[in-house]
Amino acid sequence: MQLWTLVRFALCVLLITCTAKAADSLVVIVHRDNPNQQLSDYQLIDLYMGKYTAFPDGTLATVLDYDQGHPLRAKFLTTLTGRPMSQINAYWSQVKFSGKASFPQAYQSIEAILEEVASTPDAIGYVPEAALTEDVKVVYRFVQ
């Protein structure tokens, strides 16, 4: 009897852990009719760091991000680039000063990003995996 209780407890802990990891995972999304099926981390870095303004198929991309200070922004950019936010902010200061690129459009909430991507065929954004809707398509998943 005690062994069965221990096994059930272990399974519950495992299920909760897996569910929490899925909820914490970020995914990159595009409009559901966007022809791009998958993007690489290098392509995302180029889009989110202002190096390129188009998807791999040549379609101009409307890059969406969160406002400065939003916790998802820091998590996404540091995970994607492997750099601390101080370096990312310094990079954007240089880019802004040079006039070579402009910041991605900034939004305050996950819901706003989802709504904009769902209604804009060339938009790209990122949200927690748990927030996905049928109106968007995942083109990149972070490996945990």
Account of the 3D structure:
The chain is α/β, with parallel strands linked by helices and 144 residues long. It has one domain: D-Maltodextrin-Binding Protein, domain 2 (3-Layer(aba) Sandwich), CATH 3.40.190. 46% of the residues lie in helices and 18% in strands. It contains 5 helices and 5 strands; from the N terminus they run H-E-H-E-H-H-E-H-E-E. It has helices at residues 2-24, 41-48, 71-81, 85-98, 110-119; strands at residues 26-31, 62-66, 105-107, 123-128, 136-141. Strands 3-2-4-1-5 form a 5-stranded mixed β-sheet, with helices on both faces. It is globular, with a radius of gyration of 18 Å. The two termini are 35 Å apart. Mean pLDDT is 84; it is low at 4-23.
SSE layout and pairings?
Layout: H1 2-24, E1 26-31, H2 41-48, E2 62-66, H3 71-81, H4 85-98, E3 105-107, H5 110-119, E4 123-128, E5 136-141
Parallel strand pairs: 2-3, 2-4
Antiparallel strand pairs: 1-4, 1-5
